[in-house]
Amino acid sequence: MMLSKRFQIWSWFLSFLFVLSTSSARPKPYAMRISCGARQNVHTAPTNTLWHKDFAYTGGIPFNVTRPSYITPPLETLRYFPLSEGPNNCYNINRVPKGHYSVRIFFGLVAQPTIDNEPLFDISIEGSQINSLKAGWTKHDEQAFAEAMLFLTDGTASICFHSTGHGDPAIISLEILQVDENSYYFGPQWGQGTILRTVTRVTCGTGKSKFGVDYGGDPWGGDRFWHAISSFRPGSDEERSTEETIKHTSLSPNYYPNGLYRTAIIGTEKQPDLEHIMDVDPNKNYSIWLHFAEIDSVREVGQRVFDILINGDTVFQGIDIIKLSGDGYSSLVLNTTVAVSGRTLTITLQPKEGSIAIISAIEVFEIITVESGTSRDEVRALQSLKKALALPLRFGWNGDPCVPQQHPWSGIDCQYNSTSNTWVIDGLGLGNQGLRGFLPKDISKLQHLQNINLSENSIRGPIPASLGSVTPLQILDLSFNFFNGSIPESLGQLTSLRRLNLNGNDLTGRVPAALGGQLLHGASFNFTDNSGLCGIPGLPSCVPHLSSGAKVGIGFGVCIAFLLLAVCSVCWWKRRQNILRAQQIAGKFIYLLTLTSMLQIFKGLFQSTQIHTKMFTQLGMAEKWHLTLN
Ligand SMILES: *[C@@H]1O[C@H](CO)[C@@H](O)[C@H](O)[C@H]1NC(C)=O
Ligand SMILES: *[C@@H]1O[C@H](CO)[C@@H](O)[C@H](O)[C@H]1NC(C)=O
Ligand SMILES: *[C@@H]1O[C@H](CO)[C@@H](O)[C@H](O)[C@H]1NC(C)=O
Ligand SMILES: *[C@@H]1O[C@H](CO)[C@@H](O)[C@H](O)[C@H]1NC(C)=O
Ligand SMILES: *[C@@H]1O[C@H](CO)[C@@H](O)[C@H](O)[C@H]1NC(C)=O
Ligand SMILES: *[C@@H]1O[C@H](CO)[C@@H](O)[C@H](O)[C@H]1NC(C)=O
Ligand SMILES: *[C@@H]1O[C@H](CO)[C@@H](O)[C@H](O)[C@H]1NC(C)=O
After folding, report:
1. Of ligand 5's atoms, which has the minimum distance to the CA of residue 453?
2. Are strands 460-461 and 422-429 parallel, antiparallel or unpaired?
3. Which atom of ligand 3 lies at the shortest distance from residue 367's CA?
4. What number does CATH give the domain 1-27+182-370?
5. Where's the Malectin-like domain (predicted)?
6. Fewest Cβ atoms closer than 10 Å to its Cβ: which of 205, 248, 381, 423?
7. pLDDT tens digits along 585-625
8. Predicted TM-score of the model (pTM)
9. Is the pLDDT of residue 30 over 50?
10. Assigned CATH topology for domain 376-540
């Protein structure tokens, strides 16, 4: 009894401790790994890493992979994007918590010899271009991926691949790994406005190239790849390594793995300085991080002192690792920012008299200024336009319309507004593109359009009246489509209009007077080849327009007229019947008259004067009737 009660108290106490420890521990960082083209989730050795299946993120074609480098994760599939699907293709990953991320993309080769083996393409994250593959990348292991650190703040990660006309982009994997909020803080420029693109990350001295997980690194550092180099200048430097644990590693905010500092490259008595030369893109700013630990025989302050020069300029003077890190086997990290105008970046460690230089690791990042995207309302309007016009796949309207600036959507013109720090659309040039569908009224949400050309397509339905609110519009060419209905009156509000081509459609009705009026202002209009348009010179005149009251009036009038006509017809018919009857009678009299004449000839004066008188009276009456009728 006593025992069981004591046990209970103990177990409560233990579970309390457990809850306390887990709640005070940092939550695990967000990590999303996608195995592109995979139909099932995949786990890979040696760390049993989970890769999510590739489901409904994007278009493209799944295929079997040829991995160009041993660094690429051991995945079997990729996804590639043929140009027929358009030049811009994106993975859109939702529900990404707001935070600081390391995003990494591994490239592959489609396992089919008929397809160009080394595609060259550009990569952007959230509209900022972070990488451009260079010819020959498949021959350099560490160029098999692109990596950048940035803040994701809108709950999504949009990663886009931009074709450059050299083969189809082919992607093996995407990783979105949360890192410390303050990692790689390099100075006031650092923050949401900048991206750090990994140029190189090398571990110096003996040892294999490794990922952070292989080093047993803290997940909050992201899963960094450290490319091993054993010498800067073979023959004039040496390797060093130790089994000792290095102090002050795996610390916030960068969580460098301990193993990184257990190896180093060191100068020699004959050649005490060290020099690392690398190729870089010119005219960029770079953030450079240098790692040191005293793992050699030096134990006293002042025994190893060196300056650090970048492209010949001294950036750190009199570096003494023991002094700065506090001890031997203790890590020291230095960072600096440099602007590089040429194509090489040279890091020189120049020891003072009697010293020899040593270094454990080097990281170089390009500092990229984040592109400001297109105004959200305009993006939505373009998406609704894409749908309504049934834009063919080859247009590739994916990602942001205006950025990266190197890869805007085809058929649109962009303009940067430095006040609002956004891009807006000022032109739509989609003439002769085989478009179907209709023009949505949402087009008016593109409030900065100066130029719309949708000529020579097969667009149907009405011209949206909302176009009249796009006041900057100067050129509106909707010619040679199947627009029907009437021209909206609202187009008369477009006072900047210089050219309006509506010819070659199925438009009907009167050309709005306001447009007719603008003819005077020197704008050029074309309304021809619309069977039903009327009302301006060159077009048929319009049948007068009648109000419903007028219509009732006219209807009433027509009825009266019809009644009158009917009455007249009846009268006329009756009269005619009378005439006919009278003519018949007259005919009889004429016959009688002839007979009488004959009687006169043959019988002479033998007949009585009474008969004569009666006969002639009736004949006169018939003649009278005849005169009135004619
Ligand atoms: C990919 O490889 C698997 C076996 O490894 C094979 O069954 C499948 O047909 C391949 N797919 C393609 C598209 O070649
Ligand atoms: C990088 O260097 C700057 C000064 O140049 C310093 O303010 C900053 O704390 C350093 N970053 C880290 C993470 O040590
Ligand atoms: C480099 O940084 C400076 C400010 O430190 C800035 O004026 C310049 O525009 C940057 N250069 C590039 C290419 O980003
Ligand atoms: C830029 O944006 C601001 C604020 O939205 C606006 O007031 C201004 O007119 C715009 N400038 C141009 C040139 O469109
Ligand atoms: C509109 O596009 C068509 C076809 O591309 C072109 O022929 C026409 O000249 C363009 N219209 C204007 C006003 O530029
Ligand atoms: C315009 O054409 C569509 C079919 O393309 C038709 O449904 C609609 O009734 C037409 N509108 C007018 C006013 O003729
Ligand atoms: C108007 O368009 C028709 C074709 O629909 C063309 O023949 C004519 O030359 C154009 N008129 C003007 C003034 O451009």
Report:
1. 1
2. unpaired
3. 14
4. 2.60.120.430
5. 34-366
6. 248
7. 555 555 454 555 555 544 544 444 444 444 444 544 444 44
8. 0.82
9. yes
10. 3.80.10
